[in-house]
Amino acid sequence: MGLLRKVDVPVYDLSLIRGIWEVRVKKQRQKQKKEQERVEKSALARIDQEWQYRIYCKTLKSDERNLLHHYLERTTLTNTIQPYTDGDEQDQKDEQEQKDVEQKLTLQLNGDRWMDFPRELQWMTYLREWHVRGTRIRQLPDYLPLFTQLSVLEIPKNAIAELPPEIGKLTGLRELNISYNRLSKVPPELGNCENLERLELTGNYNLSELPFELSSLKQLVHLDIAENRFVSIPICALRMSSLQLLDLSNNKLSDLPQDMDRLEQLVTLFIHKNNLSYLPHCLTKISTLKMIVVSGDELNCIPTRLCSNPDIKFIRLYDNMSEEKKKKKKEEEEKKKKEKWRRWREQREEEVKDGSEKEFIEAYVSSLKDRDTIPYATTKVTISCLM
């Protein structure tokens, strides 16, 4: 008997490795941020923009040029001393001035007549809000990173297929709504928008995952990823510590993670129209939770503390199917049962076949022991007799 060799098996703490990896990611992100600030402070981008503007103005007529200059004028509020007026009149005047300023700092595009963003938009870098809805625009412009003061980017119900990585340079962004477009992925650079408070990605039917880098969105309070193809809750969502509303409805979830109590500030949870059959007990540990909306058709295991807690509005939605839909669903279930039975029979026949093959090989190998020479090749002949 040989000597037993001692083998050292390394044992690692996965949480420690993950912590080291997250520190490295954070350092790399800080390095990229410094490089980005250095490039932004450079005068090259501003000089290039000014020259592009001059070239464009050369192509315009005098009246068109004057109209463009007037269109690009900015009005800013000054802190000059105003003469004394009545309180109500002064409030109304201030409100009107505020509305005028907000209107001048907002882009509005509506309707399917828009195929692309207007060319003069590239010189309106002072804009703070974009509201683009129901157009046929397919992509965001290349000069988007120049809009460093942008705080609201609302572009739902368009034909946008992807978000450019440069969106991560909009560090002042607070709201991003890109619902009902054609996204299939989200760039990791979006995690650089650390001031983001509201993110809506509803109805991008090819979207099935979010990058881990979105974990850095610690200010996010509203996350809507309904009507997509998620089969599980994104890991990054569980690390958004300020999250108050999470909408995961109408996806393909089959279960919820056991560490959902990480979301210590969660107030509202929408998880209806999924394939959930139970709810995890960890939901009872979220003290801030006030509302849960689920589908009651397939749900059969619910923690008692969720149902009986008077502070939580527990809402079950049931599909009120018509007779025709019920009949169709029943036919589909029967079809699935037949298909399952057919596969079982085929598998059983295959097992029987494999068993007979194995018996033949064993008998053949045992017969070789009585032979003087072993044949180089053997032909198997199967004879079936009809009685």
UniProtKB/TrEMBL annotation:
Entry keyword Repeat: yes
One cellular component term from this protein's GO annotations in UniProt: cytoplasm
Keywords on record: Leucine-rich repeat, Repeat
Biased composition (Basic and acidic residues): 325-336, 344-354
Segments of this protein annotated with the region Disordered: 81-101, 325-354
A Pfam family of this chain: LRR_8
Domain of life assignment: Eukaryota
PANTHER family assigned to the protein according to its UniProt record, in alphabetical order: LEUCINE-RICH REPEAT-CONTAINING PROTEIN 2 (PTHR48051:SF16), PTHR48051
Name the UniProt record assigns to this protein: Leucine-rich repeat-containing protein 2
